Amino acid sequence: MLTSTDLLRRRRFLPLFVTQVLGAFNDNLYKNAMVLFVVYAVYSSAEQEFWFSAIAQALFTLPFVLFSALSGQLADMRDKAMIIRWVKIAEIGIMSVGATGLVLATLGIGVHAIAIPLLLLALFAMGLHSTFFGPIKYAILPQHLDRSEVLAGTGLVEAGTYLAVLGGTILAGWISAEVAAILVILLAMVGYATGRQVPPAPAQGAVEKIDFNIIRSSINVVKGSMEDARVYYAILAISLFWTIGAVLFIEFPPLAKNVLTASKEVASLFLVVFSIGVAIGSVSINALLKGDVSARFAPISVLAMGAFVVAFHLVCKAWVPHDRLYGVMEFIQLPLAAPLLLSLLGISIAGGMFVVPLYAFLTTVVDKSQTARAVAANNFVNSFAMVGGSGVAIGLNFIGISIVDQLLLAAAMCIVSAWLGWVLHKAELRLAPA
Q: How far apart are CA 325 and CA 225, in angstroms?
């Protein structure tokens, strides 16, 4: 089995890895710069902040609903490396629009009428960017890697992604929106340059006609990809995982500001801890499984995640709000800061260990000519799950359930995820080659 370090020295993996890392870094630099600026400098009420966070999440998710099937077909029927180049060119234009919105907002020019709509338009376009890049970053792995390397490659992609989230998050919390506006354009250009180094990855089977009917093609892609029980349960488990994620992501910015009375720098620290944890979990599960694509650790991983969510909830319930926002140094000296950060770290490590093998299932148990469509089917179902999670969070907020108590919903969903992981492992054992 090739080690993760070995893979990082191979051209069949490194350019894709770097391109994905740069894209994730840039994506999160933009998103966090936007959200933190709007939450801390534009709006002044928890309700407005919650609704902005929810709308932003919905806009980013919508392209996955509309175009996942098309993205999967394109990636399976065309050269994946060529698609990467086109997607990366588009990122330069998208970030130019987002940068314009950031600059206008900081200058106070048409903040509500022009700047915020531009910011949200760019966010929607980045969701579209991710919709077309997402299937490729996983589906290209079994094309360029041996089967025994796919889990390590998937883990590295996930770890690199969340370390990039970490870097983008840290930077967004510490630089001005004007500087962020310049950086997102420059990083998009560098991402295009690295994307050009990805080796060719042509279609693996017969080139079929692409169905541009988004309703029919979405149904066909999902039906075709979920005929294998392992893929079916993997998609369901991943989707429930992202439902939990949607609930947590929506709650996080207003919770940090209004419950924990933390500054935007502390909010960035929380996301840093979360990203480090997912990276640790993503790499460590490959070491535990020794390269074997298996769901045997999935149930215990997601149950541990649920337990840490409950711990995080209890710390938030015990938290005493301050009359002003804590800075980083003040915050980390508080008695409850350590259990809060450790709970968050536990959530993210367990989450990484749960989800990485499930993504590996999508690309190893289907024919190589179908891998992108399997990932696209997963993204399509995930998007509905995330919209559902967002809707539940909005509904709970509407009927007056506090953000802190909504965390218990995420913990409860971890139990269902554990059951799905167990069913997947049973299907894995039943369908494994003799």
A: 48
Distance of CA 337 to the CA centre of its chain: 25
- Residue 220 contacts residue 70 (beta carbons within 8 Å): no
- CA of 32: how far to CAs of 37, 38, 93, 147, 153, in Å? 8, 10, 19, 36, 27
What confidence tens digit (pLDDT) does each residue in 3-62 have? 556 777 777 788 888 998 999 899 889 988 887 777 777 776 667 777 777 788 778 878
Hey, what's the torsion of the CAs at 156, 162, 165, 171, to 10 degrees?
-90
Residues 6+ apart with CB under 8 A from 3: 152
pTM to 2 decimals? 0.72
Counting every residue, how long is the chain?
Answer: 434
From residue 174, how far is each of 203, 264, 334 by CA, in Å? 43, 9, 22
* CA distance linking residue 40 with residue 35, whole number of Å: 8
| Six-digit token string for 355 | 């989800």
* Res 124: pLDDT: 93
Q: Between these two residues, 5 and 192, which has the higher pLDDT value?
A: 192
Q: Which residues pair with 262 in a beta bridge?
A: 326
- pLDDT (0 to 100) of residue 279: 80
CB 285 within 8 Å of CB 353: yes
- DSSP alpha helix (H) spans, 255-296: 264-289
Per-residue pLDDT reduced to its tens digit, 128-178: 998 888 788 777 877 777 777 777 777 788 778 878 877 887 788 778 888
Q: Dihedral sign, CA of 143, 144, 145, 146? A: positive
Q: Which residues contact 195 (CB under 8 A, 6 or more apart)?
A: 15, 19, 81, 84, 85, 87, 88
Looking at domain 4-196+216-431, which CATH architecture does it have? Up-down Bundle (1.20)
> How far is the C-alpha of 100 from the C-alpha of 89, rounded, in Å?
18
With H, G, I as helix, E, B as strand and everything else as coil, classify residue 395.
helix
Amino acid at 105: A
